[in-house]
C-alpha cells in the first residue's frame, strides 16, 4: 500500500526525460505501487467471456425505426427516452456488455450548477430520472446518494463566478449558499481553508451508480418494447442516395446480420471506430482519464463532494473513502483505439496524475498519510470546445450523434438523451441545444478569436472598443463583417423555399434587403438574418450565380453559418424544393455598413445618388415574438421586477420603450 504523499514523491523520483511520443507508451512506477499493474485482469476476463459466447444475446430484427449503437450511459438513456416518447421498435446494439467502454469506471458525480440555463435544465432532468423517476417506474434503486457538493474558490474571480452561479441557480429553484472560509471549515472539518476566498455549497448535489443505472434504464426500455442486444459489434453503416442526391442511412451491418433502419444514433464514446463509418466526421479524441480510490479516511463520512476548478481536482465521497481525480493538463492520447478493449484499464502514469495528488493533499491534508486502495485509468472522449456532439450529422440524413461528453456523460446523459430523442422524433430538440449541435462544432477562426475575449471583467481590448464606439458616435466608422456567412438561394422553387423559411415577406422589389427570422421545422425561430432579392440576370460578377427566376442573397452571422447552412439544406431536402444553395462565405468579403454621425455626408460625396431621408429612408423591419403567453402593456405595467447580481438583489423598472433615445432618432443620425 502506498500513501498519497509518498506515492506521488516516488512517482516524481523515477521520472525520466521522455519525448511526448515515448510518454504514451513508457511507464515509470514505484515498486510498492503494485495496484498499477493489475489492469490486465479485466481484459483477460473479457476475452474468456467472448470465447464462450458464439453470437449476440438476442436475434437481430430485420427492421428497426431507430438503432442506438453503444450500451453506455448515453446509449441506455437515449433508448429509454425514445421509448418514453412512444417509440417501441427501437434496438440498442452493444459490441460487448452494457457499460463496457467508459461508463463502468466513471466517477458518477452530479453537480447541479453550470454557467448555462440550458445545462441547468439538462442536469435537473438527469437528477430527476436518477433520484426518483426510475425507481418509481421499476422499483429498483439506482444508487443515488445526496451528500451535497462544494465548489472551492481560491481567488476573488472564482468566487465571483460562483456567486453568479448561485444567482442563476436560484431562478431554477436550486438551493445553494456562498460560505466563508470559517463556515466551510465547520461544514468540512478536514479541509484546509487558509488559502480560500470562500466556497459555494449545493446541498442537493450527489453521486450515482453509473453501471447499475444503465442496467435499470435498459430494463425500463425493454419493458416498453425496446430490444437490447449485447455481444454484437457494428461493422458498417450502409448509406443510400435518394432521388434528390441526398445521402440517407439505409441499414446497420454487424458480424451477425443487418438491420434495415432510417435512423442510427452513435452513442459510442470509447472505441471510436464509428468515426470512420458512413462518411460522417466526428471531431473528438480519446485520452487516458484517471482517478484513485483512497483507503478509509477517518472523519470523511457524510462530507460533500468537492470540486476545486483552480487546482483541477475533485474529491468524491465513497462511504468512508474518497475518489480523487480531475482533468489532466498533459493527458496521454489514445490514438490506436482497440475494438477489443472491454472492461479494461490502463496503468496509471504518475507523471501525469501528480497534479491531482498535489491539489488533493493541499485541500485535505489528512490525505497525505492516507493509503491508496486502487487506481482507475480508462478511456474518455473529449471534444475541441468541451461540449458534447449531438444532433443529425450534416453529411448523412438519419445519422445522429450523442457522444463526446468530456467525462460528463452520466451527469448530462438524462437531459441530453431526452433532447436527442425529441430531436430524432420531431426533427429538433425542445431546448436550445445550439452549443451541442454537431452542425455548430466546426472550426471557425472567428469563434477562436472571440473566445480569447471571454471574461467576467473588461476584455483585453476594451480601450480599443471604446475608441471605436466614440468614433462611430461622433464621426464615421466602416464595419467589416466578412466573417459572416454568405449564401445564394436559387432555382425554380426558390420563392417557395423563401416563403417557407422566412417569417418576413422577402419578395420585395429586386435590390431590396429584408431583415427576417428563419423558421425551424416546428414553426419556431431558428435564427435571424438578412435576405436580399436579386435581379434575374446572367452572372454579371465572378461569384454571382446565373438566375432566370427568383434568387436571393443570404447574410448570416459568422458563428452560426454552418448551422444555418445545414438547416436550410435539410428543409430543402425534406420539402422537396428544387433549389440550389451556394456557399461563398470564404470567397467574398462584406462591408456590412458605414455608420456614424457623418456617414451620410461621406456616402453623398462618393455616390452619385440622392441619399436624403426621403429618397433613402432608414430600413424598417418587423420583430415577431413567440415561450406561449401574451405579454401586453398592462401585464408589464402591473408587474414587479428585480435583478440579481452576484447574490445581491436590486429593484428594477420595466419600460415599454427604451428610456434612452425613445424616439429612435440616433440610429437615424439625428443627434440634436
UniProtKB/TrEMBL annotation:
<dbReference type="GO" id="GO:0005759">
    <property type="term" value="C:mitochondrial matrix"/>
</dbReference>
<dbReference type="InterPro" id="IPR006222">
    <property type="entry name" value="GCVT_N"/>
</dbReference>
<protein>
    <submittedName>
        <fullName>Sarcosine dehydrogenase</fullName>
    </submittedName>
</protein>
<dbReference type="Pfam" id="PF01571">
    <property type="entry name" value="GCV_T"/>
</dbReference>
<dbReference type="InterPro" id="IPR006076">
    <property type="entry name" value="FAD-dep_OxRdtase"/>
</dbReference>
<dbReference type="InterPro" id="IPR036188">
    <property type="entry name" value="FAD/NAD-bd_sf"/>
</dbReference>
<dbReference type="Pfam" id="PF01266">
    <property type="entry name" value="DAO"/>
</dbReference>
<feature type="domain" description="GCVT N-terminal">
    <location>
        <begin position="453"/>
        <end position="631"/>
    </location>
</feature>
<feature type="domain" description="FAD dependent oxidoreductase">
    <location>
        <begin position="65"/>
        <end position="423"/>
    </location>
</feature>
<dbReference type="InterPro" id="IPR027266">
    <property type="entry name" value="TrmE/GcvT-like"/>
</dbReference>
<dbReference type="GO" id="GO:1901053">
    <property type="term" value="P:sarcosine catabolic process"/>
</dbReference>
<dbReference type="GO" id="GO:0008480">
    <property type="term" value="F:sarcosine dehydrogenase activity"/>
</dbReference>
Amino acid at each position: 500500500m502506498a500513501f498519497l504523499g509518498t506515492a506521488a514523491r516516488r512517482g516524481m523520483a523515477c521520472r525520466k526525460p521522455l519525448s511526448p511520443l515515448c510518454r504514451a507508451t513508457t511507464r515509470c512506477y514505484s515498486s510498492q505501487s503494485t495496484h498499477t499493474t493489475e489492469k490486465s485482469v479485466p481484459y483477460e476476463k473479457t476475452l474468456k467471456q467472448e470465447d464462450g459466447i458464439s453470437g449476440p444475446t438476442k436475434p437481430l430484427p430485420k427492421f428497426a425505426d431507430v438503432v442506438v449503437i453503444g450500451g453506455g450511459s448515453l446509449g441506455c438513456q437515449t433508448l429509454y427516452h425514445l421509448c418514453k416518447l412512444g417509440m417501441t421498435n427501437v434496438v440498442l446494439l452493444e459490441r460487448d456488455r452494457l457499460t463496457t467502454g467508459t461508463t463502468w469506471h466513471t466517477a458518477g458525480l452530479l453537480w447541479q450548477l453550470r454557467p448555462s440555463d440550458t445545462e441547468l435544465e439538462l442536469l435537473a432532468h438527469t437528477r430527476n430520472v436518477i433520484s426518483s423517476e426510475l425507481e418509481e417506474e421499476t422499483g429498483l434503486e439506482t444508487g443515488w446518494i445526496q451528500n451535497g457538493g462544494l465548489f472551492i474558490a481560491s481567488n476573488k474571480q472564482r468566487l465571483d463566478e460562483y456567486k453568479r452561479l448561485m444567482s442563476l441557480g436560484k431562478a431554477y429553484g436550486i438551493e445553494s449558499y456562498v460560505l466563508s472560509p470559517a463556515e466551510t471549515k465547520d461544514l468540512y472539518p478536514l479541509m484546509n481553508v487558509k488559502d480560500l476566498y470562500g466556497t459555494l455549497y449545493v446541498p442537493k448535489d450527489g453521486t450515482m451508480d453509473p453501471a447499475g443505472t444503465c442496467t435499470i434504464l435498459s430494463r425500463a426500455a425493454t419493458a416498453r418494447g425496446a430490444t437490447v442486444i449485447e455481444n454484437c459489434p457494428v461493422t458498417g453503416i450502409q448509406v443510400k442516395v435518394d432521388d434528390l442526391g441526398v445521402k440517407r442511412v439505409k441499414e446497420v451491418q454487424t458480424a451477425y446480420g443487418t438491420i434495415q433502419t432510417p435512423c442510427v444514433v452513435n452513442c459510442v464514446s470509447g472505441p471510436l471506430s464509428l468515426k470512420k463509418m458512413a462518411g460522417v466526421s466526428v471531431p473528438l479524441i480519446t485520452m487516458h482519464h484517471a482517478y484513485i480510490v483512497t483507503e478509509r479516511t477517518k472523519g470523511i463520512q457524510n462530507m460533500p463532494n468537492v470540486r476545486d476548478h483552480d487546482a483541477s481536482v475533485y474529491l468524491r465521497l465513497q462511504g468512508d473513502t474518497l475518489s480523487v481525480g480531475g482533468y489532466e493538463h498533459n493527458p496521454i492520447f489514445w490514438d490506436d483505439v482497440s475494438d477489443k478493449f472491454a472492461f479494461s484499464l490502463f496503468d496509471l502514469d504518475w507523471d501525469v496524475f501528480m497534479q491531482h495528488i498535489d491539489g488533493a493533499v493541499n485541500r485535505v491534508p489528512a490525505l497525505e498519510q492516507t493509503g491508496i486502495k486502487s487506481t482507475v485509468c480508462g478511456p474518455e472522449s473529449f471534444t475541441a470546445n468541451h461540449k458534447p456532439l449531438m444532433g443529425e450529422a450534416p453529411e448523412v440524413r438519419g445519422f445522429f450523434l450523442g457522444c463526446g461528453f468530456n467525462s460528463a456523460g452520466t451527469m448530462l446523459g438524462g437531459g441530453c438523451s431526452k433532447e436527442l430523442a425529441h430531436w430524432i422524433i420531431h426533427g429538433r430538440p425542445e431546448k436550445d441545444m445550439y452549443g451541442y449541435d454537431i452542425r455548430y462544432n466546426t472550426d471557425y477562426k472567428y469563434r477562436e478569436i472571440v473566445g480569447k475575449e471571454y471574461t467576467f471583467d473588461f476584455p483585453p481590448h476594451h480601450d480599443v472598443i471604446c475608441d471605436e464606439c466614440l468614433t462611430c458616435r461622433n464621426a464615421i466608422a466602416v464595419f467589416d463583417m466578412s466573417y459572416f456567412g454568405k449564401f445564394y438561394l436559387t432555382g425554380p422553387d426558390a420563392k417557395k423555399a423563401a416563403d417557407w423559411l422566412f417569417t418576413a415577406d422577402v419578395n420585395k422589389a429586386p435590390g431590396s434587403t429584408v431583415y427576417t427570422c428563419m423558421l425551424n421545422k416546428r414553426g419556431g425561430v431558428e435564427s435571424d438574418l438578412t435576405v436580399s432579392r436579386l435581379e434575374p440576370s446572367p452572372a454579371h460578377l465572378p461569384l454571382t450565380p446565373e438566375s432566370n427566376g427568383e434568387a436571393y442573397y443570404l447574410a448570416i452571422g459568422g458563428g452560426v453559418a454552418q448551422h444555418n447552412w445545414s438547416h436550410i439544406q435539410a428543409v430543402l431536402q425534406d420539402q422537396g424544393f428544387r433549389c440550389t444553395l451556394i456557399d461563398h462565405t470564404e470567397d467574398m468579403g462584406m462591408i456590412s455598413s458605414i455608420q456614424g454621425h457623418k456617414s451620410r455626408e461621406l456616402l453623398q460625396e462618393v455616390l452619385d445618388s440622392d441619399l436624403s431621408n426621403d429618397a433613402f429612408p432608414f430600413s424598417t423591419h418587423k420583430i415577431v415574438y413567440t415561450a406561449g403567453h401574451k405579454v401586453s402593456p398592462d401585464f408589464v405595467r402591473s408587474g414587479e421586477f428585480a435583478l440579481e447580481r452576484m447574490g445581491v438583489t436590486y429593484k428594477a423598472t420595466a419600460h415599454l420603450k427604451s428610456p434612452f433615445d425613445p424616439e429612435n432618432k440616433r440610429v437615424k443620425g439625428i443627434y440634436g
